[in-house]
Amino acid sequence: MATSSSAGHDVHGSGQATRRDFLYVATMGLGAVAAGAVVWPLIDQMNPAADVLALSSIEVDLSKIAEGASLTVKWRGKPVFIRHRTAKEIKEAEEVNLAELRDPESDDQRVKPDHKQWLVMIGVCTHLGCIPLGQQGDYDGWFCPCHGSHYDSSGRIRKGPAPANLAIPDYQFLSDTKVKIG
182 vs 81, 126, 133, CA distance in Å? Predict the structure, then answer.
């Protein structure tokens, strides 16, 4: 005598799928698609906005920056200081005893070879994120008036509460008068 179940399951063990099995699989598949449709916008919104991607690198013309002058440009929402250093500033930066520095870094590590006259760095104080003032302070470099950090002509911290040197962004010279930051 054959037994059947009102639940629609295969109680005979014949291995054939029932209508209920099909509905279960179809419902699970649609649920997965619906979950993906909900989650995708949440993941996609974490990508950088188009205006940020457009600023991921910038090119700067250096030909208009006189020796001893600086230019500040905006890159990724932060100021970048570009300083055309004088021979005196370069000499001062190279003669600093690295043992005296809180964040020891030679001047050669902070500039590109054959372009020692150009210093490119992010203009944000490493103490609390203030914007230092150029060509001020005790070391002929930058001074952060908020809390008194002094940076030298190579952007290295020399005095005050800042824990590190001004950061150097990724950059490369495209020619003697053009630099690409980022």
Answer: 14, 20, 23
Distance CA 129, CA 119 (A): 20
Tallying the residues shown for the chain, one arrives at: 182
Whether pLDDT at 76 is above 50: yes
- Angle at alpha carbon of residue 82, lines to 81 and 85, rounded to 5°: 120
So what's the pLDDT on residue 24? 86
Write the DSSP string, 81-148: EEEE--HHHHHHHHTS-GGG-SS---HHHHS-TT-TTEEEEE---TTTS--PEEEETTTTEEEETTTT
What integer is the mean pLDDT of 131-155?
89
Q: How far apart are CA 124 and CA 160, in angstroms?
A: 15
Tokens encoding 87? 């021979």
Q: Round to whole Å and give the CA distance between 92 and 115.
A: 16
Catalytic residue among 9, 12, 115, 147: 147
1 pLDDT tier (thresholds 50, 70, 90): very low
Indicate if 147 belongs to the active site. yes
